[in-house]
């Protein structure tokens, strides 16, 4: 326990950029230095992912109202009135000289299918950005991968994505089966998928 406390105590300021369509909101938050100093490869470790999620969730929640206010009033997918805004973080904490977290804010109407389709588009965009970042002669580490929690229990360890929508994750078959009745109603095959 003492090691965990020491692990979290060393902190550094990090820029958070919330991209809300036409508007960009910028904030500085102090986060554990271990998230920055660990490098891009550390994102593959469960402890890193758990800490990343625990640190980012309250920051994103703190700015949720501002993000909703700054985003479009219509759902980005279907054009219905927006009920909330999805926040999708992407870590650039591997850039030790200028660490930051980019958060894409997308207005959504509250329909599950719209949320899944928007998340799929954001995942595709993030994959393209990661691919571009790794193409600079191999000198820069790749950005961290998206951290997905089990939809049932919230774990981040050994998560498998839904094979159809590729957005929702589960820690095992039991939780996938437990959630299937609700998830199947909104599950949308990813574009270009053979499912």
Report on the structure:
The longest helix has 22 residues, at 112-133. The protein contains six helices and six strands, in the order αββαααββαββα. It has 195 residues and is an alpha+beta fold. It folds into two domains: 12-139, no CATH class; 148-195, no CATH class. The chain is 36% helix and 22% strand. Strands 2-1-4-3 form a four-stranded mixed sheet.
**Percent of residues in beta strands:** 15-25%
Shape: globular
Helix content: 25-40%
Counting structural domains, the number is: 2
**How does the helix and strand content classify structurally?**
alpha+beta
Number of helices: 6
The profile of the biggest β sheet is: 4 strands, mixed
Quote the average pLDDT.
83
State the end-to-end CA separation. Answer: 45 Å
Total strand segments: 6
Task: Show unreliable segments.
Answer: 135-144
The helix/strand series, from N terminus to C terminus, equals HEEHHHEEHEEH
With strands numbered from the N-terminus, the spatial order across the biggest sheet is 2-1-4-3
CA radius of gyration: 17 Å
């Amino acid at each position: 326990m003492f090691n965990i406390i020491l692990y979290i105590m060393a902190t550094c300021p990090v820029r958070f950029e919330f991209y809300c369509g036409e508007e960009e909101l910028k904030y500085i938050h102090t986060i554990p230095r271990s998230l920055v100093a660990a490098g891009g490869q550390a994102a593959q470790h469960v402890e890193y992912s758990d800490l990343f999620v625990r640190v980012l969730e309250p920051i994103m929640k703190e700015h949720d109202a501002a993000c909703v206010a700054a985003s479009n009033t219509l759902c980005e997918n279907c054009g219905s009135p927006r009920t909330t805004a999805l926040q999708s973080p992407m870590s650039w904490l591997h850039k030790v000289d200028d660490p930051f977290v980019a958060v894409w804010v997308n207005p959504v109407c509250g329909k599950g299918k719209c949320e899944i389709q928007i998340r799929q588009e954001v995942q595709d965009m993030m994959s393209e950005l990661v691919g571009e970042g790794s193409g600079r002669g191999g000198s820069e580490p790749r950005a961290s991968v998206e951290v997905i929690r089990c939809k049932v229990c919230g774990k981040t360890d050994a998560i498998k994505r839904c094979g159809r929508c590729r957005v929702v994750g589960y820690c095992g078959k039991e939780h996938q089966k437990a959630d299937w009745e609700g998830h199947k109603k909104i599950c949308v095959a990813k574009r270009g998928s053979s499912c």
